[in-house]
Design brief:
Elements lengths: L16 H7 L9 H18 L5 E5 L3 H10 L7 E6 L2 H12 L3 E6 L8 H10 L5 E7 L1 E2 L4 E2 L2 H11 L4 E5 L18 E5 L11 E5 L1 H6 L12 H8 L10 H17 L1 H22 L2 E2 L11 E5 L6 H12 L14 E5 L6 H17 L8 H13 L2
Parallel strand pairs: 2-3, 2-4, 4-7, 7-8
Antiparallel strand pairs: 1-9, 5-6, 8-9, 10-11, 11-12
Helix pairs in contact: 1-9, 2-9, 5-6, 9-10, 10-13, 11-12, 12-13
């Protein structure tokens, strides 16, 4: 029965039975007419989630890391300069990927718990004369720290600097859970994946790509084969794939989009905010502190929570799993041993969230944390009762 317990990690998320059934299909001919009829609407409908009318949706059989690689290798050349701020594990990993591809990476070091430093981006871009920076890379939702950055502010900073750099955004753990406005924010490439807000298994990188980014392909010389935008778009134009596609995930994504639209994207975003706020009320009742530095940075998809001085967050998550069969996120990078994470995105309800809060409270009580059993659950219950539809 343990596999019926929900997970409270920030991805992969819980897979609804409706989506598991949609992915549970026999092998099919991906060159047959019925696949074309399935795939083309999936690409079209994904645009609504990305918030784009002008961009193209391009998918690859990969995780979000593959999406990062596709973004840079299609638009940049060896030695090109990119600007990125390091404020968590995933911005750190994107830096590493760029350096391995021979890019010159200018890094703005930020404290973990802060967000994308729009003002510092503006200063660097204004000082970039001649304008050699080709792209600004931003992690929208930093899952290591539970921080959601203001992408619109980054765009305003870039415009204020009058700089022509492209903007690439990692929205892997935010898309389909919080609002994303690719066109309005001037995002050139948005990178997401199947395993978070879309509630599917891992294995599909999903990108929104602007016309400006597509034009950059003409001069980009980083090598690409599997991740070639042009090959994928050429095949997609007739409803196909340049190689064998992940059929189960495509059928799952079709059903996922139906579920999101049936609930309504605004209602999806409101649900995520409500569940996140219930978790935050619990954290406050426990007397614990979020890693995010201030309320405007609080993520609605994951909360990273510092454990009290003298306690080991890894022992807490291990105990919750070994005794109660429930997974919570470990602390990553600088948060290792200092914080645990509660993922509250994807297929979750207030009742499921309460079960997670009750479980982690029991684990904390078992390990003699200075937390009153039931305090966090009660705080979340009161909030959920007051805000129930």
């Amino acid at each position: 029965m343990a596999d019926q317990n929900p997970v409270f990690i920030p991805g992969p998320t819980n897979i609804p039975d409706r989506l598991r059934n949609a992915m549970h299909i026999q092998s099919r001919d991906h060159r047959a007419p019925d696949f074309v009829e399935t795939f083309a609407p999936v690409l079209r409908d994904c645009k609504k989630v990305f918030g784009t009318e002008n961009g193209e949706i391009i998918t690859f059989p990969a995780s979000g890391t593959g999406g990062w690689e596709a973004a840079i290798c299609n638009t940049l050349s060896p030695g090109d300069k990119v600007l990125i701020a390091r404020y968590g594990m995933f911005s750190h990993r994107w830096i590493d990927l760029c350096e391995r591809h021979g890019l010159e990476v200018q890094i703005i070091e930020c404290s973990w718990g802060s967000g994308a430093p729009a003002d510092q981006f503006e200063d660097v871009l204004k000082a970039d004369n001649p304008q050699t920076i080709k792209a600004v890379l931003v992690t929208h939702n930093e899952t290591a720290t539970g921080v959601l950055s203001d992408i619109a502010a980054v765009r305003r900073a870039m415009d204020s600097a009058g700089h022509p750099a492209m903007m690439f955004v990692d929205c892997v753990s935010s898309l389909a859970s919080v609002p994303f406005e690719m066109d309005n924010w001037g995002v050139d490439i948005a990178v997401s994946g199947s395993q978070k807000g879309f509630m599917l298994a891992t294995g599909m990188a999903i990108l929104g790509v602007s016309k400006k980014a597509l034009a950059a392909m003409e001069t980009a010389t980083l090598p690409r084969t599997f991740f070639d935008f042009r090959d994928m778009m050429t095949a997609n134009a007739t409803g196909g794939f340049p190689y064998t596609p992940p059929l189960q995930l495509i059928y799952g994504l079709k059903e996922s989009l139906s579920m999101l639209f049936e609930e309504g994207l605004e209602q999806v975003y409101a649900r995520h905010h409500r569940l996140a706020e219930g978790v935050r009320r619990a954290v406050s009742a426990w007397g614990l502190k979020l890693c995010a530095n201030s309320p405007e940075l609080y993520s609605n998809t994951v909360s990273a929570i510092y454990v009290p001085e003298g306690f080991d967050s890894n022992r807490l998550t291990e105990h919750a799993f070994s005794k109660y069969g429930v997974s919570f996120g470990i602390g990553l990078g600088e948060m290792n041993g200092k914080a645990f994470r509660i993922g509250h995105l994807g297929s979750l309800t207030d009742v499921m969230v309460l079960s997670g809060l009750a479980t982690i409270e029991m684990a904390m009580a078992d390990l003699d944390y200075p937390v009153a059993l039931g305090s966090g659950v009660r705080a979340a219950q009161e909030y959920f009762r007051q805000t129930a539809a």
